[in-house]
Amino acid sequence: MDYISTRGSAPALDFQGVTLAGLAPDGGLFVPRQWPRFSPEEIASFTGLPYAELATQVMLPFVSGSLDEATLRDLCHRGYGRFAHEAVTPLRQFDQQHWLLELFHGPTLAFKDVALQLLGLLFETFLARSNDHLTIVGATSGDTGSAAIDAVAGRERVDVFMLHPKGRVSEVQRRQMTTVLAPNVYNIAIDGSFDDAQAMVKRMFGDTAMTGTYRISAVNSINWARLMAQVVYYFAAALQLGAPARKVAFSVPTGNFGDVFAGYVASKMGLPIERLIVATNVNDILHRALAQGDYSTGTVTPTDAPSMDIQVSSNFERLLFDLGGCDGSAMAEQMRAFEASKAMRLSHAQREGGAALFTSARVDAAETAEAMRWAADRCGELIDPHTAIGLHAARRAAIDSHVPVVTLATAHPAKFPDAVERATGMRPALPTRVGDLFEREERYVELPGEYEAVAAYVAEHATPSSA
Ligand SMILES: *Cc1c(COP(=O)(O)O)cnc(C)c1O
């Protein structure tokens, strides 16, 4: 499978190439040159497969030329073997129409583990082939940092440097990063905000003194391999609810548009999806874009669902590219205008194409709390604030009552215990597998919010690329 950039001027790469590259060199995002498609008979034949086997079948067309089936199967079994639930992403029933897809049974209690556990193994496999070394640099305001660290801790040929704003992540989130003591993990607490940390990471990607020596890479959801891994659970849930004979709708708590774009890919591959509900919090750029064609940034309002507190949704570019007829130069022009003015209008084709599959909703703080209470009172389930935003949007959406609606549960409630307790009066307990988090030793360095200090620290500890 060949991958092309949404901005049209980067050379095409194979799956191994796009996994190691992350972002395309022309500033665009990599997408497959064409969508692989399964027939209804092929989809029906996946019914009942264990998760790792289903993952192998769904992802195989995307990795062709880079991984054979046996290798992919081995990586899936190893990656998903670390989940605390045998089904990996179990489905629970709320009521006659509504279902919950639990994506938080991985090591760090958020759905990001589903993709990152596999990505860590892909890095190791591809780097061994090229005998190279990768330096992952990232900034985190919460869930991505811990999931990325867990995924690469102790792996050969990879070091991870994760910046977090000192004193501005929750104690659970900090400890999930800083108690990982593997020698290839470097936690850095920065004096400053998340945006300061993010700006330093971006600067490092453009710093030729660093990129000339180290193979610097990112693990955020611009990486195609992460989206690919997320396509699998849409198939898993829909098959359990009667696909391909029956259509299913999904409601997705959305920030960077990675998770819900994976649903779009599943639909392109032939999975009969009735509707994808894009649920945002009050940081509603995506809701405005899909409902009114207005993609313009504002300022970020902090909410109880911090992983969705975003201004710009990087993966939205992948959808706009596909809906706009895969025209790389038009996309590059549209993004250039957006970057200059921080606003753009969607084209007619992008709006029409979006409306055919997506519905969107903006969910405020009171509605989020109400959804947490409904789940607790009516169904005896504690859900986290991100999931609650998805559930609220699902229950309000106009979906035919015969169509099952699956809300993606993106985090374990114990990751956000204060918000859950405020809404429901009940404090969710940490699962026993992470129960000693508060007793474990922590290790991190504190650095001033200055790029030079961070770059010097990375240069001192990273391994140069052999390429
Ligand atoms: C990252 C995250 C999201 C948003 O997912 P995107 O792929 O960025 O849209 C939602 N909920 C939780 C808990 C997350 O960690």
Explain this structure.
- The longest helix is centred in the N-terminal third of the chain and has 19 residues, at 112-130.
- Helix content is 44%, strand content 15%.
- It is of the alpha/beta class.
- The model has no long low-confidence stretch (mean pLDDT 94).
- The chain has helices at residues 15-21, 40-45, 51-63, 69-80, 112-130, 143-152, 171-178, 194-205, 208-211, 224-240, 258-268, 285-292, 316-323, 328-341, 348-357, 365-379, 385-396, 417-424, 451-461; strands spanning 3-5, 30-32, 91-93, 98-102, 134-139, 158-165, 185-190, 216-217, 248-253, 273-280, 294-296, 343-345, 358-362, 405-409, 445-447.
- The strands form 4 sheets. A 6-stranded mixed sheet has the order 3-4-14-9-10-13, sandwiched between helices.
- It has a domain at 84-108 and 224-424: 3-Layer(aba) Sandwich (Rossmann fold).
- It contains 19 helices and 15 strands.
- The chain binds pyridoxal-5'-phosphate (PLP).
- Pyridoxal-5'-phosphate is lined by residues 110, 112, 143, 221, 253-259, 307-308, 386, 410-411.
Give structural attributes.
467 residues; six-stranded mixed beta sheet; Rossmann fold; alpha/beta; five-stranded parallel beta sheet; single chain; 15 strands; binds pyridoxal-5'-phosphate; 44% helix
Strand percent estimate:
5-15%
Give me the side-by-side strand order of the main sheet. 3-4-14-9-10-13
Radius of gyration: 21 Å
CATH fold type of the domain at 84-108 and 224-424: Rossmann fold
List the helices and strands and how they pair.
Blueprint lengths: L2 E3 L9 H7 L8 E3 L7 H6 L5 H13 L5 H12 L10 E3 L4 E5 L9 H19 L3 E6 L3 H10 L5 E8 L5 H8 L6 E6 L3 H12 L2 H4 L4 E2 L6 H17 L7 E6 L4 H11 L4 E8 L4 H8 L1 E3 L19 H8 L4 H14 L1 E3 L2 H10 E5 L2 H15 L5 H12 L8 E5 L7 H8 L20 E3 L3 H11 L6
Parallel strand pairs: 4-14, 5-6, 5-8, 6-7, 7-15, 9-10, 9-14, 10-13
Antiparallel strand pairs: 1-2, 3-4, 11-12
Helix pairs in contact: 3-4, 3-10, 4-5, 5-6, 5-10, 6-7, 10-11, 16-17, 16-18
Bound molecules: pyridoxal-5'-phosphate.
